[in-house]
Each structure stands twice: as structure tokens, then as C-alpha cells.
Specification:
By secondary structure, the protein is of the alpha/beta class. The chain is 39% helix and 22% strand. Helix 8 crosses helix 12. The longest helix has 20 residues.
């Protein structure tokens, strides 16, 4: 497929042009590159530099294979450069990596830049990169939280956490389960070695809140609980970023977990958002664009 045609289909489906600027990466991308005096505006597409969503790097027009990933870690970008042919496209959720930290290991640095030499290699190889952040979080057909609800066979009954042009969080009815049963199911679905857990354990759960990615916001948790959620499934229930901001967020959450009525379950930021890639996003691309899809998994989901 021609790159321009693929871009049009993706832009239209996700409503890229209806969102002026990404609420997160319009801040975070300049934050990591500007101190390096790296002219990112000269490397990325003009419209991306305004919206921080959409076609980020434009390569050759003929696209044979689409690669799917969440974060552009060094590992993922190097694998893409090594495996891809000229014109291939990398579709990601984040335009820069995020070191979220490990609840059983080292804390992370937060948002960091893609090494500039790797950006240059992508451009030299005439490869393309497309990122979709906020629109992928609130799209109700192919969405980070919706993919989790679909896998759990949960019925969406409400939304929460206003984000961009939609809502990132879902309130769902689900078949009766327990905290332990729910965690066991999530471990298998997300291919993770453990979850980050806080709060209460329940023998009977029939209503859950789902918000992929960074869900460590106490006000959102309290609102979900007010809507009857007994379990709160997210990427991160704690901020494990190794700075004053991260430690303050961690303290606030630890105060809340003493009073929460819910089971708080963290899946890892990356794993919770990669799930849509291997399910709904892959299916949509195979139907609408091409069947030649490759998944780029991270070696570690907590990092």
C-alpha cells in the first residue's frame, strides 16, 4: 500500500486532525529533546510537530510490512531498523520511550529521548514511523482500554477520565470472579510475571474499572469506586519514577491505598498498552490495510 493512502486511513479512523495537540506529548517530547539542542522539528513531519500524533517520520511510499510496538525503546528501534525493508512502517503508541520502573526492581527515569543516531538511521533507511497516543486511548473500536475489556468479556456501562476528545477509562460489568481469579487471568493474558497490587481482596467482583497506561491518579480511582467498581485494572497503580515528582506521587497513592475499597491491579504501563496492538490494532490493519503485520515485543514489560 502507498504510505499516503495508509496515512489517510489511519488519520481518518483515529480522528487525528480533530485533536489539536496531544495533551501529553506536546509537553513531554520537547521536554526531552530541547535540553539536548536536538532539532527534532527538522527530523519529524511538520503536522506531527504541531499535533504530536500521526505520521512522525515519512520514508518511501511503498509500504510492505507494518510493525507494531508501544514504546520506541532502543531495543525496539534497533530491531525495526535491522528487520525492516525500505518503506516499512512502525506504528507505536508513544513517540518517545518511558522508563516506568519496576515495582520489584529499579525505578525508572520517566520520559527519555530516542537516541538521535537511531532517528537518523530510520531516516537513512527510508523507513516510516506513525504514532497514535491520545486517540488510541479513547477510540471505542480500537482502544487501549477497550481491548482489555474485550479480552475480559466485560460489558462497558460507563466512561471516566476525560482525555483529549474522549475518555480513557471504562466502567464495566463482568462475570462474577474473585481478586485472585482476576489476577491469574490477567497474568496469562498480558504475559507478565507479576502484577503490582494494593488495596482489598474480594471474593466477589462483578464491576471493574479499566484504564490502560498510567492510571495512578487518586481522583480517578475515587470516582471509579463511586461508580461501584470493585477492582481497578491499569498499567500503573504506583509511579516508580526516580525523582521528587515520582516519590511524591508514590506517597499520595500509599495514603489512598489504606482507604480504597477496590482491588488495585497494575499490569505494567507497556504491557497494558501493547495488548491493543496484538489484538484489536492487528485485526483492524489486517482488514483495512495489509495482512503483513509484525509485533515488536519488549523483553521486559516492567522496566
Amino acid at each position: 500500500m502507498q504510505l499516503d493512502h495508509m496515512k489517510e486511513k489511519l488519520d481518518s479512523f483515529f480522528g487525528i486532525n480533530r485533536l489539536d495537540k496531544d495533551p501529553a506529548f506536546s509537553r513531554f517530547l520537547p521536554m526531552v529533546y530541547d535540553p539536548l539542542q536536538f532539532r527534532w522539528q527538522d527530523k519529524f513531519e511538520a503536522d506531527f510537530n504541531h499535533r504530536f500524533n500521526g505520521l512522525m517520520i515519512s520514508g518511501s511510499q511503498e509500504v510492505e510490512t507494518i510493525y507494531l510496538a508501544v514504546f520506541p525503546t532502543d531495543e525496539v528501534i534497533r530491531q525495526f531498523i535491522e528487520d525492516a525493508s525500505e518503506g516499512d512502517l512502525l506504528f507505536m503508541h508513544h513517540p518517545i520511550p518511558m522508563e516506568c520502573g519496576d515495582p520489584r526492581g529499579n525505578w525508572g527515569r520517566g520520559f527519555v529521548p530516542i537516541p538521535t543516531e537511531l532517528i537518523d538511521r530510520v531516516i537513512e533507511r527510508k523507513l516510516s514511523v506513525y504514532t497514535c497516543h491520545a486517540p488510541l486511548d479513547y477510540n471505542r473500536e480500537v482502544g487501549t482500554s477497550d481491548a482489555i475489556a474485550e479480552a475480559l468479556e466485560a460489558q462497558i456501562i460507563d466512561e471516566f477520565c476525560k482525555y483529549g476528545n474522549g475518555y480513557a477509562g471504562l466502567i464495566c460489568k463482568t462475570r462474577s470472579t474473585s481478586t485472585k481469579e482476576l489476577i491469574a487471568r490477567l497474568l496469562a493474558l498480558f504475559e507478565i510475571p507479576y502484577v503490582d497490587f494494593e488495596g482489598k481482596e474480594h471474593e466477589e467482583i462483578s464491576r471493574i474499572a479499566i484504564i490502560a497506561g498510567c492510571g495512578d491518579v487518586v481522583s480517578d480511582m475515587k470516582y471509579a469506586a463511586s461508580l461501584g467498581a470493585q477492582a481497578y485494572i491499569t498499567g500503573e497503580i504506583h509511579c516508580h519514577i526516580d525523582n521528587d515528582y515520582g516519590r511524591q506521587r508514590y506517597r499520595v497513592m500509599m495514603d489512598y491505598v489504606q482507604e480504597t475499597p477496590m482491588s488495585l491491579i497494575g499490569l505494567s504501563h507497556a504491557a497494558s498498552e501493547f495488548f491493543v496492538m496484538k489484538t484489536q490494532m492487528k485485526r483492524w490493519l489486517e482488514k483495512e490495510v495489509t495482512s503483513n503485520i509484525k509485533l515488536l515485543r519488549q523483553r521486559k514489560w516492567w522496566f
